[in-house]
## 1
Amino acid sequence: MSVATNGVGRIAAAFEGHGKRAALMPYLMGGFPDLDGSALAGEAAVDAGADLIELGVPFSDPLADGPVIHAAGTAALAAGATPHGVLRVCERLSARVPVVLMVYANLVLASGAEAFALRAASAGAAGLIVPDLPYDEGDELRGAFDAEGLALVPLVAPTTAADRTSEIAALARGFVYAVSLAGTTGERDNLAPGVADTVERIRAAAGLPVAVGFGISSGQQVRAVAEVADGVIVGSRIVRAAGDGGPDEVRRVVSELAQALGDRW
Amino acid sequence: MSAPTVERRFGPYGGRYVPETLIPALDELERGWVAARTDPAFLDELGALLRDFVGRPSPLYLAGRLSELTGAEVYLKREDLIHTGAHKINNAVGQALLARRMGKRRVIAETGAGQHGVATATACALLGLECLVYMGTEDMRRQRPNVDRMKLLGAEVSPVEAGARTLKEAVSAAIRDWVANADNTHYVIGSAVGPAPYPALVRDLQRVIGDEARAQLLEAAGELPGRVIACVGGGSNAIGTFSAFLDDAEVELIGVEAAGEGLSTPRHSAPLTTGARGILHGALSAVLQDEEGQIVEAHSVSAGLDYPGSGPEHAQLRDSGRVRYVGVPDEAALAAFRRVSKLEGIIPALEPAHALAWLMANHGGGIDLLTLSGRGDKDLAEVLGT
């Protein structure tokens, strides 16, 4: 990996240097099943070919998440996970790959945007996804994250209009997260039909990599995403693996997905 | 209902803290409401339904024995006498009518005590809309008759198993449904909470309480009240009442929250009295949370007040000092429930029983207006079981 000085730079380098059809970004719930278990699962994912890790910070009321990730968050909280504890997991994983935190807005607000940005940057985080913070509510956080070189990665949904997509893209940092379907996180059998359109709309507006997530779990789906996007995010499937079989199962699933992404043409 | 725009913020509070997928639906709803509330045909239809179906205007009643007890003239705004027995129907009929106008044939709602669910099921039956109500399984157990009522009215009740299985989780489940189905679905939020434009929309639809009461009181007493008192959970009956009096600087406004087992304990539902600034269900407002920002469970003997958040406009009115927010514990509300039943021949819902308890403990001596937001039949099992 090239030497990048801050989070934004590390993300850019990861999207350039992965050597696959698309960068593979597994999602893990921090603190699930416990803090050490989630760190081991993350390390297993990196061993198996993850190029970046998306690390969830458990929240009591996760509006954007489906049943699997919600349940994992609830279990993590019950096991005593805190944002501070998850940042320690982030510290371990960020030694290997860029880590993007998925954190709900109230957890950032509770400690203050600047303080949270400082803590995240100290823990080696490269960026943050705040799923309940549309870009037009994000000025304060964006300022605080920019000051620490952290990427505030925005989401664009299939429902997002073209002019709004342009506005979001203009303020995007790191990459743009294309939501594959109108719904919450969770595995679906098929790739949503509009994904290519959503990615195209973002590409037309943004000079950044586009990664697709929500509803993606199989090798076939990640290959299909790689046809159109720069990165693919797999969440509930990995979280389910972490819960069912721990790091070994995570290693097996991620390795399967990495193989599906194969080498570049 | 005459302002040209719908507020997205109330001072620093409010906003739209929701997944990006929902933004177009919120934009559409905002445009829909701005257009509907100035459309004479819509307002005529709503007015006729409120009159003939809901039973408005609700009476303003000078409660003789309560007045004697407190040494004041106590006027009760009788929302307990309207259809379905609580103020929730004002909002449900308005939003269902709006949903139909916007071409949404499917309606979803959340409910805690079941009053808003029943009101929404009622409005959907009235207008021939498909209706699904999310309800925590703990609340379903506590409020069995309302579950039966909703089903009888043709609604589907979807049990929510997450968390404490109460209102907070039901709201989350409804928002998730809406994220996936916004193209054909309208979400009827039951209180003045949630992302913009809901706090303003619900307030506008509940303002009929305050507008009626103000006019009725001027006619009955020839003057404005010294104090206006209403209970506050999410705060829809209170904001509907207060909004008609905000410009009357001489009128004192008092919002009564549920202090549960006491404000010094963690078991209460009084975010405006005690809570910090936080984001819950799409809005920045006063929220019960721990030091990390995790939302904590609320507690109140009254299911309708058992919610860790509050409407963003209330948070602004608290900061500005225009409204004073106070807490009344379970015990005092239960005592008021029994006392007022015997004293006035009116069994109040446990929610306004909090406001009545405050009134009986804090005599004003002038004219008091209290919104009796619903009737207490639904609470008999809860009260007689304790």
## 2
Amino acid sequence: MSNLDLIIIGAGPGGYCAAIRASQLGLKTAIIEKDTPGGVCLNWGCIPSKNLIHQAELFHSLSEMEQVGVKIGRSGLNYAHVQAKSRQVVKTLTGGVAGLLKKNKVNYIKGTAKITGKGEVTVDGTKYKTKNIMVATGSRPMNIPGFEFDEELVLSSSGILAMTELPKSIVILGAGAIGCEFAYIMNSFGVKVTLVEFAKHILPTEDFETTAILAQSFKRNGIEVLTSTKATSLSKDKNSVTVTVENADGDHKINADKALVVFGREPNTQGLGLKEMGVKLDQRGYVQISDYCQSHATNIYAIGDITNTPALAHVASKEGEMAVEHMAGLKPHAMKVDANSVPSAIYCEPQVAGFGLREDKAISEGIKIKKSVFNYAGAGKTIAVGKPEGLVKIICDKKTDEILGAHIVGHCATELLHELLLAKHAEILPEDIESMIHAHPTISEAIMEAARGINGKPIHG
Amino acid sequence: MAIKYVMPKLAMAMNEGTVNEWLVTQGGKVEKGDALVTVETEKVAYDCESPEDGYLCIIVPDGETVPCEEIIGYFCQSAEEAADMLASAGNASEATESVKETSEPSNEQPSSEQKSQTAVPNASAPIAATENTRRIIASPLAKKLAKDAGLNIAIVSGTGPNGRIVKKDIEAALKAGLHQAATAPLAQGGSTELARIPMKGMRKTIAERMKQSLTTTAQLSSAWESDITDLLSIRKKFVKREDSLGTKVSVNAFIIKAIVYAIKQVPIANSCLESEEAVIYGNINMGIAMSMPGATEYDSGLMVAVLHNIENMGVVEIDKAMKALFKRIRNGESTAKDMSGSTITMSTTAGIAPPGMTTTPVLNLPNAALVGPSTAIEKPIVKDGQIVARTMMPMSFTFDHCILDGEPAARFMSALHDALENPELMMA
């Protein structure tokens, strides 16, 4: 394997997409992975959790069947089988990624890589020479002193994805996307869930109106949601944990079979020889990058979770593509990912999705906006399928009507969002969405109605 | 196989050209030597002859400006091939659009819509009501922003996918002040417009050249008066002999000859700034600013005709060469050489400007100097202690201080003044 144009370290969604794109552009490419292809996303993140959510939804919807007289016993639930199903999905998809890499003539090297010189990467003792290096090593669950993972009683997101037996109760520390998704999964399978969040509302980086609806739904389903609450300590007994929390009501203790600690993630930037090569890291260990994801060291690029951009698979993939196109001498459309155009998606039921400007940020930064909120219940389809809980919120520039942000909570929100994201990306205005015929009955009609609300009145509002 | 036809490069200084008018319809048959297309360059419009036989596939429609050497059409072997060529000329994504259009044979400019997507600099602003309405590819937000700002979106270049006009293009146009130019008459309710002059072709070139001249040089103008009484009486003798000389020698011919005399005294006045070097020329190519008809009855055009190698010519020869040059230009028969290569410029306002007016003309780049005679007037002058009536010509000299300092410039002006006042020196 001589005269490589590019070595990518890490075959997650950033690395493997970049490798395929690089190969398509004629770069001789190798990708190094110490685990299985697909990275955290595919193996221990997005994908297995989506399968668990799907199964949780099925289980949860049994009550609907009971309303029409079908009697199904729940006692036979075998969580090990649930897990096995999700692992099967992972296996199918990792196989798919390996196949794609092979089909695109990307050299796949299994092992642990370290950059050992200019254009030199050593994998378990073997040296490889290359023109460019792309670091795409991703991130891992953040370990906080006092809340260290043991993956028995104190679980990380990876630990809970390996768990084969349901606990009776769980306390989840951190109500970000992962915390909320597991709160939903565990609750659906009958586990008693306490969700603790330090910020004012769950999903602190999402819109307060959409997250309020999710919080309502959680509470209605029996999840105890504690916001503005700080976890101060954790102690373990033989078979349970006790978390001490502190909020306006004072200190109290939460006892549960297990704790899931999802405070955040930290970049995998140690032990790669980055600093020695002149790659600069910031205080928290993220690689500092300039346009097209170039690090401070010539011909070393860094993409995905190891950079201080939103830690999302789709951001990593886009960054990888951009960096590779830059290496190949093309002029990619954008030099960096525009955070305002990155969609976020949380997959519990109801789903939460959004992009761009939030109302609270507009207020705090004095940005003059128009907003329109349309409730799901106004779109007949949601009533028909029994998912009336939700809303579509559009935020526009007050003067120009430019769509600056959109936030949706409700059934299929993560899919619906893209109509609005495309509108923003292509500079389409609410009046265009409003004048476009939407099929009836669809949930998408709620988007049309919300668009109508920017300068007029919805028909069903 | 179809043969490419590119925007011809008619002069060294020509970087882009505007397709003024195709003289053959889309898909029409042409023969070698037929008048094919009128191309408007920075200076003048040329009728280009067809270099090939074939069926024409027009890629760049009337009114568009494109860089030289860019394909503007194809010669095909059959009308069908021309239609196929047209259909495949757009991007793959636009193919359906162009195919659809070719199925409408009555449409004379089927390619105009697809071509507008690559929107080369602002050329085809559909300003005149007679021009075909062209589809403007712009995002809805860009359209709204333009409308709100009163900006004619047709004059904006797009930088989005496939040349689409997007928000940042409108913001850039507004920053550049395009909206003020385009909307002033509309903004004052009740005003009537006499004409709108698109900033394209010659107008655009004049605007760019003038701004470039003023921003890239350190130019200044000096003015004085020269007594041309004796020059005029010599000219009278020449005019009397018009038949034998074969021309009614003009005053301009004498002024040009005087400039040649002065250049021989101070050669640096005959120089050009060419890529970080001042080149002082031995031959003299006199650029003569000429007023041209504009796009409408209200505006004008301007070009610089060039009289080559006049350093050894006498006034009669200069006069004849100058008149022949003007005739070629007025008849549209000029060559690229007639419009390029000046080493110094003369821009006269004599006969148009009020008597006694002096001017501060803008340098014609890359020339470092420009002589600006104006309308002469009889004045009382003290000569040999007596007040006498003499014909005084206001003169100006604009020069680039980057090349010429005040000392040589003053010497040049003195030499010119000397030759004008003592025309016998022109025999030197």
